[in-house]
Amino acid sequence: MNKVIISCAVTGALHTPSMSEHLPLTPDQIAAQAIEAAEAGAAILHLHARDPIDGRPTADPAVFSAFVPRIAEQTDAVINITTGGSTSMTLQDRLAYPLLAKPEMCSLNMGSMNFSIHPVARKIKQWRFEWERPYVEGTEDIIFRNTFRDIGHILRELGEGCGTRFEFECYDLGHLYNLAHFVDEGLVKPPLFIQSIYGVLGGMGPDPENLTIMRTTADRLFGRQNYRFSILGAGRHQLPLVTLGAILGGNVRVGLEDSLYLGRGQLATSNAEQVRKIRRILEELSLDVATPDEAREMLGLKGRGRTAF
Question: Does the keyword Transferase belong to this entry (predicted)?
Fold first, then answer.
C-alpha cells in the first residue's frame, strides 16, 4: 500500500472564536499551530486567514502574508491555500492571495452548494464577538458559489497560469462528475487529489457506506491509478471516517477547521494533537506516513522553489 498523506486544515472559515478557545485566529497563532502540526507529521497544511482583531474570516493578502512565509521558512510541508475562503467572499476576494503566492497547491470546491452550520448557534450561550451569531445563523440562507465558469476560471488562472495543483473538495457524488467534466475539457490532468467530504449540512452525510460509493465512482470515472483519494469527516465523524478511509487505501485530513474535538466531549488544544492522534492510529494499522517530499511526488507538485512565498 502507498504511504498515507496527512493533511491538516488549521483554522478554516466556519468555526468561530466562541466555539473553542484553541482555534487559532491571529497570524502568530496560525503560524505556531501550523508549524507544530507539520512537526507532528502533517505533510500538507491547508490554510485560511482570520482577522487578527476579532477572528472573522478574511481574504486580505496582507494577513496571509503575515503568517504563510513564516510557515514556509520553518517547515518543508506543502502549503495549500484555500480558494474557498468563506461564503461571504467574492471569487476575486478568494483568489487575491493565491494569485500572488502561486502556491504548490490550493483547495477547490467542485460545485455550488448549501453549506450550513446554523444549528450550532442553538448550543452557544455566550458569544465573544458581535459578528459571530449572525454569521453562524446566516449560513441557513447562504449558498457557497462555485459555478462551472468559476471553477474553469480558477483552473486556468491558478492551474495553467501558476502551475498550482489542487485539492479537489468533493462534498457530494455529483462533484466527482463535475471534476470528470474538467478532465474531459483538458483543464485537469492526473494525478488528481480528491478530498471526499462527509458530514457537512448541505453535502453528503457521514454514513460509512458513502466512502465506498465515492471510492468506486472515482475508480470508474478516473481509474484508480490516476488519482489519490483522501477523506475528511466533519465534527465528531472525523476520526472514525478518516480511519476507515485509510483502511480503504485513502489519505486523511484532520485539523480544527474540520473538527474542534480530539475525542468525545474533549476539545483539541491544538491542530498537532489531532495530527499526532491520527498518526498513531495509522502506525498501529501498519500504515506508513508520507513526508512532504513524498507527498509532492505522489501528487505531481511543482515544488516549494517555484512558489512566491
Answer: yes
User: Which helix (DSSP H) or strand (DSSP E) does residue 254 occupy?
Assistant: strand 251-254
Alpha-helix residue ranges (DSSP H) falling in the chain: 27-40, 61-64, 68-74, 91-101, 132-138, 148-154, 161-162, 173-184, 209-222, 238-247, 271-284, 292-299
Domains in the chain, CATH or no CATH each: 6-306 (3.20.20.70)
Q: Is the bond preceding 292 in cis, omega lying within 30 degrees of 0?
A: no
Report the C-alpha gap between 182 and 24 in whole angstroms.
35
Report the alpha-carbon distance of residue 180 to residue 227 in Å, rounded: 12
Contacts for 130 with CB less than 8 Å, ≥ 6 apart:
none
Please write the tens of the pLDDT for every residue from 63-113: 999 999 999 999 999 999 999 999 989 999 999 999 999 999 999 999 999
Grid cell for residue 73 = 521558512
How far is it, in rounded angstroms, from Cα 282 to Cα 52?
35
213-271 residue pLDDT tens? 999 999 999 999 999 999 999 999 999 999 999 999 999 999 999 999 999 999 999 99
Contact 200, 109 (CB under 8 A): no
Residue 166 dihedral angles phi and psi, to the nearest 5°: -130, 145
Distance CA 192, CA 85 (A): 21
How many whole angstroms separate alpha carbon 114 and alpha carbon 147? 13
Tell whether the model's pLDDT for residue 307 goes beyond 60. Answer: yes
